[in-house]
Design brief:
Elements (H helix, E strand, L loop, with lengths): L7 H12 L13 E5 H10 L2 H15 L13 E2 L2 H8 L6 H10 L3 E5 L14 E4 L1 E2 L14 E2 L5 E5 H10 L2 H13 L14 E2 L2 H8 L4 H13 L3 E5 L14 E4 L2 H4 L9
Parallel strand pairs: 5-6
Antiparallel strand pairs: 1-7, 2-4, 3-4, 8-10, 9-10
Helix pairs in contact: 2-7, 3-5, 3-6, 7-9
């Protein structure tokens, strides 16, 4: 996190060059992360289309990725053109309107200025959108109760920037769900000593319930690709037994940067 921000063209060029390299692991949470609202991981990603996840993730990255010296976002009402949503958020041209409408309908974002096409001598007006924050005291953990991102203290997880810039921007929704779940269940859990989990057991049935991936073949493929690309790694294999008490879920962890320098990771795209 830093006070000043590079131009969108510079970010776009660096993003493309970085994705063409094999992924070396997420940088540790000493820099290059944002405090992401848990509702993005718990409500938005599991229950939204890929276009919505990419659009909301892009606005989160733009809003919370650059803070001033007081810790406030430098930019909150973000003017975004269709071209920018395609190039920077990764939403297809045909899916932009649907992603915007769904995000507005489900209270993830709000429109601060309506866009307008060029009419005669009048220039086109770019639409402006901002994240929708909920100032109510109650924390909503379900899509039905969600009326905006929780604006109170807590309920946030430090998420590496690469999750937004690489995984959400370029990978499938299923892979985004898997990597987001492992992040949420490791660094997203902090004990009273300030420590965070480094690994967590996640069974197939539990992953299906929290990611909303109903097809086990899709889930298996997303897990395998997430491991092959170097986003996560399996610490310990699971064990199936007819007796439920003897079953053991596989244990997963986020692949951090220094781990990736030792093990072979990922394929170049």
């Amino acid at each position: 996190m830093r006070d000043s921000k590079p131009s969108n063209v510079t970010v776009r060029r660096a993003d493309k060059q970085e994705f063409e390299k094999p992924f070396s692991g997420f940088q540790h949470l000493t820099a290059n992360f944002i405090y992401c609202p848990n509702q993005f991981l718990d409500v938005c990603i599991p229950h939204s289309s890929r276009g919505v996840v990419r659009l909301v993730g892009y606005l989160l990255r733009r809003t919370l990725g650059w803070l001033d010296k007081n810790g406030d976002p430098i930019e909150q009402d973000i003017a975004v053109s269709y071209r920018e949503i395609i190039a920077d958020a990764g939403v297809s041209r045909g899916g932009i309107r649907e992603a915007l409408d769904e995000s507005l309908r489900r209270n993830f974002i709000r429109c601060t200025r309506a866009g307008q096409k060029a009419i005669g001598m009048q220039a086109a007006l770019t639409g402006s959108y901002a994240l929708q924050w909920d100032t109510a005291q109650a924390y909503a953990a379900s899509p039905e109760a969600f009326h905006g991102l929780y604006a109170g203290e807590g309920y946030r997880t430090p998420i590496p920037n690469a999750f937004f810039d690489r995984v959400i921007r370029h990978e499938s929704l299923a892979i985004t769900k898997i990597v987001g779940t492992v992040l949420r269940h490791t660094v997203g859990y902090q004990n009273h000593f300030g420590g965070r989990r480094t690994e967590c057991p996640l069974s197939y049935s539990y992953l299906q319930s929290v990611t909303n991936i109903q097809d086990r073949t899709t889930l298996s493929g997303a897990l395998r690709t997430s491991i092959d690309e170097g986003y996560i790694h399996r610490v310990e294999d699971g064990f199936f037994d007819p007796s439920r008490s003897r079953r053991r879920a596989a244990t997963y962890a986020v692949r951090w940067l220094e781990q990736a320098t030792v093990d072979a990771i990922g394929s170049k795209r």
